[in-house]
């Protein structure tokens, strides 16, 4: 198998998977087997690419075709994209297992549509990861938006529709209204959109308006959820939890910050940005989003809403890393893509498991649940610690490098902001675990409908507190990703080696 | 031998077939005749395009009367692509029309329908291919008069088609009259009606009040025919109440042919050096185009009848085309010609999808669309894809058009315009998504028993959808021809 074939397969496998899912829609077991097989195949393919990319030969590349004169659809492997591709395809396997447990346990409707759209979304996320130029990236970025809309509006209730509208409105609005202007501006000014080491802007656009171009890009990439264009992310929480877990903690949002990183590194070039200071303003916007979103998160009682605002905040770490425009900042920001993905997907898996087992969504109702669901709460604790950035969880490394980056840039206030933000993370994430383990629940906690009546009949003080976890299909994935958070702490060096070359 | 006569055959074949079809007793026979004629015309137009790309301009003298005196047919890249578009769309529409028209037009009128259709087809081809200003007027009227009849045939479904056709008749006649007055003034000043000859004589006369008046009459008259805001009032009702197949054909071709004539007269006949050329662009066409983009799209958002909604969307899209030409640059004109072609593909596909809904339910209002994602999955999938193309999503032709238009605006340093173009396409997101929401997120009313549209409607629809995607992924052919056309119009062809 040549590298070009493997690249083509990385798009064709999920695409073919979506068709097969549609064909086998009548038979749920077969349909889910197809999803799982597709996910495993895709991950194997991406691993093969990782192997091919680490050999000294030129990076694998594939030219699909020329859309307009000079504008090509092309794929190419580079370290940052490799990392994102690995995360998206690897977590898809875990998430597919989780989806099976969650969607069946909650009797969700139109599951075939759900799995089809999921496969297309992953296909476009991989396309974003491996895009060789901004034009290709933009195309997959838009496909990702469209393909996730049916997932957000999945429940078809008025709230789901309203959420879907906000989702589409913000994402399409920013991408067409701002990002496309930026891309075409770049094209008119430089005559190329290829991702080039060291950037393509230098000398082509007047230095004084480079910050404007950068602003069009970073605000145009609505998926990065930089304030004030972050509203779509909380709105997307109406989706079933597997969607929130993989797409709105990993694939979609990470596609956003990944694009920001790509633009910073390969369109502007970090040397150019740090020399001109064109990205200084972005440091402050990112820092503001980082703190503001954390503070909003503390006010949310709905667990998924709180996690959503936490994601908005954590995404800004990546943007911040890019805005610092030095090698430590870029490495820290890129690492954050991986670390936060693993931590946040764990938290969402736990939220979904709690909902599946108890149908509770508000944090204030979750007192004492930890004793019924010890595995879920244990995993939640690990995920939370990783998101906060405490060792021995992966999240510690990304925060560490970001602080180094801020120090290198001489931005000491930013170091303070990062510290403060970690404290805020503690304040809004750990109480959830604390309540679960230490508070007594006022009412008996029940899981399945049949046991509900039994508990109601039981006299107070005599409630069955036996372990009552979500189905295994939900439980195993969240334990896996929790373990992943710890593995990432130990093997962060491999990731550092991978990313080192882009920052050099 | 026959290759040299292709330009005249392009027009004469459908022209002769039109009266012949009157003699067909049954609609089916007339339909078969029209379809064959349409295929022949398509083959001719492809041959012409290939020849033009190969050898440059083709000139054909009718009856061997030498050019400035006799009528000349002149084919270059600019009209070859419009000819291809008209005959191509017609070939796709006719298979669709057979089922749709049998459903929407009285049985005893069907033969007449195809006669009028062929006349309209002839007129559109004629006004595009001719190199003679007065001949263009004649064909413009041939196509217009037959169009009025075609629109009125929607009366079986909705009697309001009659008033729509009447309004269109009044407005269209005004437009055509303005046009012919302008041509008359040109003739008065130059003594010639040949377009190439006019193009030479007008700069020799230079600034002259009569010529300026002629310019004004021609631009206004054609503006009416191509539904340039605010002269678009005839269009929404005509599109909404005409039989579905007619709407598809008109939306994809009629305004496009008028736009081609506008391009031809403005750029070839008068030329960019003409005294009022610059001001007309800056103070009239550009502002009107921008207003059209926003006003018509906004009105579209509030429509209940989806056919009307798309009709208003067409007015907005005409704005994009006129905006491109108002830059008067190669890239600007390229974007106009590209969008002329691409918009025909997307609107054709969208109206076809709606036609299928109309056939099943008798109308296409927001209420009808409820739950159609489930009951008519293929039709609605086509509608969504066409809608995405209209919005300008990547991998569709709409994206290519938007891209070129914005590039053209940025090249002319019109920053604000570039932003406005993209901002206005967000309005398209709203009006398309309104329908998508209702179709996919609401359940169909219980009493609905109608199912998917027949294949005779679905296949042509999907052919156009396929074209939307094909030319959206590989735009090398369309961009090449459009750029060549732009160079021809600006007189900078290699």
Structure overview:
- Chain A has 20 helices and two strands.
- With 504 residues, chain A is an all-alpha fold.
- Chain A folds into two domains: 1-266, no CATH class; 279-450 and 462-504, no CATH class.
- Chain A is globular, with a radius of gyration of 22 Å.
- In chain A, 60% of the residues are buried.
- By secondary structure, chain B is an all-alpha fold.
- Chain B folds into two domains: 1-167 and 231-264, no CATH class; 276-494, no CATH class.
- Chain B is 77% helix and 2% strand.
Write a brief caption for the model:
Chain A has 20 helices and 2 strands. By secondary structure, chain A is mainly alpha-helical. A two-stranded antiparallel ribbon of chain A has the order 1-2.
Largest interface: A-B, 30 and 33 residues
Element-level helix/strand string of chain B: HHEEHHHHHHHHHHHHHHHHH
Q: Average pLDDT of chain A, to the nearest integer? A: 85
Estimated share of beta-strand residues of chain B = under 5%
Number of domains of chain A: 2
Strands of the biggest beta sheet of chain A: in what spatial order? 1-2
- The number of helical runs of chain B is 19
Task: Let me know the largest β-sheet of chain A.
Answer: 2 strands, antiparallel
Could you name the ranges of chain A where pLDDT drops below 50 across 5 or more consecutive residues? 444-464
Summarize the amount of helix of chain B as a percent range.
over 70%
Q: Runs of chain B with pLDDT <50, length 5+?
A: none
In terms of structural class, how would the helical and strand content of chain A be classed?
mainly alpha
The largest β sheet of chain B comes out as: 2 strands, antiparallel
Strand line-up across the major sheet of chain B: 1-2
Secondary-structure element string of chain A: HHEEHHHHHHHHHHHHHHHHHH
User: Gap between N and C termini of chain B, in Å?
Assistant: 28 Å
Query: What gap, in angstroms, lies between the N and C termini of chain A?
Result: 31 Å
Mean pLDDT of chain B: 89
Shape of chain B: globular
């Amino acid at each position: 198998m040549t590298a070009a074939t493997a690249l083509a397969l990385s798009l064709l496998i999920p695409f073919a998977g979506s068709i097969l899912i549609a064909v086998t829609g009548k038979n749920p077991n077969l349909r889910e087997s197809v999803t799982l097989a597709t996910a495993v195949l895709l991950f194997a393919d991406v691993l093969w690419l990782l192997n091919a990319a680490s050999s000294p030969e030129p990076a694998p590349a594939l030219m699909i075709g020329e859309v307009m004169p000079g504008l090509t659809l092309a794929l190419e492997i580079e370290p940052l994209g490799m990392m994102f591709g690995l995360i998206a395809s690897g977590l898809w396997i875990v998430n597919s297992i989780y989806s099976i447990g969650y969607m069946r346990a909650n009797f969700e409707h139109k599951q075939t549509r759900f799995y089809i759209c999921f496969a297309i979304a992953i296909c476009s996320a991989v396309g974003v990861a491996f895009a060789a130029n901004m034009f290709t990236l933009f195309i997959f970025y838009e496909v990702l938006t469209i393909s996730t809309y049916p997932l957000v509006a999945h429940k078809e209730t008025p709230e789901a529709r309203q959420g879907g509208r906000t989702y589409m409105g913000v994402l399409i609005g920013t991408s067409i209204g701002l990002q496309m202007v930026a891309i075409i501006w770049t094209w008119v000014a430089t005559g190329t959109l290829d991702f080039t080491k060291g950037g393509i802007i230098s000398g082509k656009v007047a230095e004084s308006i480079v910050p404007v171009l950068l602003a069009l890009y970073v605000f145009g990439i609505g998926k990065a959820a930089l304030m004030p264009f972050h509203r779509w992310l909380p709105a997307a929480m109406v989706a079933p939890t597997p969607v929130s877990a993989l797409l709105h903690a990993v694939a979609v949002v990470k596609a956003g910050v990944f694009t920001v990183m790509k633009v910073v590194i390969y369109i502007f070039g970090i040397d150019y940005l740090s020399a001109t200071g064109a990205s200084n303003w972005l440091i402050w916007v990112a820092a503001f989003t980082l703190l503001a979103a954390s503070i909003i998160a503390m006010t949310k009682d709905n667990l998924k809403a709180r996690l959503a605002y936490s994601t908005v905040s954590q995404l800004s770490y990546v943007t911040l890393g890019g805005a610092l425009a030095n090698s430590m900042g870029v490495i820290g920001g890129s690492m954050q893509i991986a670390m936060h993905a693993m931590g946040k997907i764990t938290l969402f898996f736990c939220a979904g498991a709690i909902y599946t087992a108890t149908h509770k969504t508000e944090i204030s109702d979750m007192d004492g649940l930890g004793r019924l669901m010890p595995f879920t709460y244990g995993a939640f604790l690990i995920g939370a610690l990783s998101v906060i950035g405490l060792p021995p969880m992966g999240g510690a490394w990304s925060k560490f490098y970001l602080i180094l980056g801020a120090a290198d840039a001489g931005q000491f206030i930013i170091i303070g902001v990062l510290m403060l933000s970690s404290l805020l993370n503690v304040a809004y994430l750990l109480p959830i675990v604390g309540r679960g383990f230490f508070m007594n629940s006022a009412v008996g906690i029940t899981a399945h409908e049949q046991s509900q009546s039994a508990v109601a009949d039981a006299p107070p003080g005599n409630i069955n507190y036996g372990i009552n976890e979500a189905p295994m299909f939900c439980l195993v994935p969240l334990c896996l990703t929790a373990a992943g958070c710890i593995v990432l702490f130990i093997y962060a060096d491999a990731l550092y080696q991978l990313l080192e070359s882009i920052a050099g | 031998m026959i290759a040299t006569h292709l330009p005249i055959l392009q027009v004469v074949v459908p022209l002769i077939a039109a009266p012949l079809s009157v003699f067909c007793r049954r609609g089916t026979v007339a339909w078969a005749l029209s379809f064959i004629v349409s295929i022949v015309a398509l083959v001719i137009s492809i041959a012409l395009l290939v020849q033009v790309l190969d050898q440059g301009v083709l000139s054909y003298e009718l009856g061997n009367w030498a050019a400035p005196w006799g009528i000349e047919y002149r084919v270059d890249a600019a009209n070859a692509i419009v000819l291809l578009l008209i005959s191509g769309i017609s070939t796709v529409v006719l298979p669709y029309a057979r089922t749709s028209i049998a459903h929407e037009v009285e049985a005893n009128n069907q033969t007449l329908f195809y006669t009028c259709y062929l006349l309209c087809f002839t007129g559109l081809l004629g006004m595009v291919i001719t190199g003679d200003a007065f001949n263009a007027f004649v064909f413009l009227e041939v196509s217009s008069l037959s169009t009025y009849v075609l629109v009125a045939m929607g009366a079986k479904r909705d009697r309001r088609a009659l008033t729509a056709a009447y309004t269109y008749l009044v407005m269209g006649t005004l437009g055509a009259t303005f046009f012919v007055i302008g041509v008359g003034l040109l003739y008065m000043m130059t003594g010639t009606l040949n377009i190439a000859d006019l193009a030479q004589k007008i700069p020799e006369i230079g600034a002259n009040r009569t010529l300026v008046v002629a310019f004004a009459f021609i631009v206004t008259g054609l503006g009416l025919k191509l539904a340039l805001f605010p002269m678009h009032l005839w269009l929404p009702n005509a599109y909404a109440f005409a039989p579905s197949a007619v709407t598809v054909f008109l939306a994809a071709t009629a305004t496009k042919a008028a736009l081609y004539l506008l391009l031809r007269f403005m750029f070839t006949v008068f030329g960019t050096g003409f005294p009022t050329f610059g001001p007309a662009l800056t103070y009239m066409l550009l502002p009107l185009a921008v207003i059209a983009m926003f006003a018509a799209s906004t009105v579209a958002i509030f429509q209940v009848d989806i056919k009307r909604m798309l009709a208003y969307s067409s007015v907005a899209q005409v704005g994009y085309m006129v905006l491109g030409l108002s830059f008067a640059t190669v890239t600007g004109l390229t974007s106009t010609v590209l969008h002329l072609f691409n918009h025909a593909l997307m609107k054709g596909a969208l109206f076809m999808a709606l036609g299928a809904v109309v056939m099943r339910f008798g109308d296409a209002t927001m209420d009808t669309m409820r739950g159609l994602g489930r009951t008519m999955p293929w039709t609605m999938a086509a509608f969504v894809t066409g809608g995405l193309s209209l919005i300008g999503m990547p991998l569709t032709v709409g994206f290519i058009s938007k891209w070129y238009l914005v590039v053209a605006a940025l090249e002319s340093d019109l920053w604000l315009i570039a932003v406005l173009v993209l901002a206005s396409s967000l309005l398209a997101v709203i009006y398309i998504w309104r329908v998508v929401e209702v179709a996919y997120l609401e359940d169909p009313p219980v009493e609905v028993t109608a199912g998917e549209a027949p294949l005779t409607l679905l296949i042509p629809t999907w052919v156009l959808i396929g074209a939307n995607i094909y030319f959206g992924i590989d735009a090398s052919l369309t961009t090449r021809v459009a750029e060549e056309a732009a160079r021809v119009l600006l007189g900078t062809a290699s």
